[in-house]
Amino acid sequence: MPESLLLSPRAPLCREWDPRAPRPPVFESHIVHGVIHPVLTTDEVLPRFTLARVFTDWGIDPLPFVLAVWVAGLYLWGVAVLTRRGDRWPVGRTLAFVVAGMGSFFFATQSGLGRYDTTLLSVHMVQHMVLSMVVPLSLALGAPVTLALRTLPARPRRWLLAVLHSRVAKVLSFPPLAFLLYVVSPWALYFSSWYDASLASAYVHEMMHVHLVAVGALFFWPLMGIDPLPGRVGYPFRVLLTVLTLPFHAFLGVTIMGQSTLIGGEHYLALREGPMGAWLPDPYEEQHLAGGILWGAGDLIGLVFFAVLFTQWVRSSMAEAKREDRRLDMMEARARREQPPPGG
To answer: What keywords does the record list, in alphabetical order (predicted)?
Structure first.
């Protein structure tokens, strides 16, 4: 790098960083033991983070914004088609998909969580849990595949059925494989260069959000969802897979808490050299807090999943018992009709 660039107090680092990055980096001169060192800092200076800013500090991240609006809009359009046709669609499913599902996705990417997710690792971790657990569960409970099968024209419906019955869908929804992807992805994210790349590139950052939702959907949709998807297994096995997620989050959280190496260390340490250094917490304490959030939130949301799955299991058993009662009643009525009258 040319010496003039190193000595420039605010020279942008254009070649090493994606200009679309969420926090466009620049160099500042920093003198250590009489030697001038370039220091990475940020153009966007955010005020001190507080809990209130999660709900009041909003922005527009184009890709997640468009995705949330279009997906929610298509779902509501499908509900409107059913309503005009005179069919009934449960309100609970609509609320689960649009409000809890896409609403949580919108909140996680456009609210203060999205504004500070590259500034504080703990904020990113909250966002991670919402995108990988809350959003997939809510979308699955909304049964969008069932809605699509009931509203699409004949040809698109055949295409959708072909996709659902394809070999790729069967492989991706195979429960052990989906569980492995769900478990391995966070380790790959935080213990490889992937997370550093997401801090440096807006595109990688947004694709990480989509990836978290997609992997969560692959794992939880066949377990919790209502849609007729391949890979569905019996309720005992579903409960087992759900319970297995609890120690996984705890182990990953404890590992992050005990790390001596900072996750995204170059990025977060550089932020402390800029104007936000006056309020940014110690990066090691911040990482310890992030690991604790992953541990605690993972267990809490996992218990919610278990409660939802157990409720579905009970309802399924009660419905099966009612069907069996009706079958026995019909057999008994048929036997009475076929029985010869007394004295016949």
So the answer is: Cell membrane, Membrane, Transmembrane, Transmembrane helix
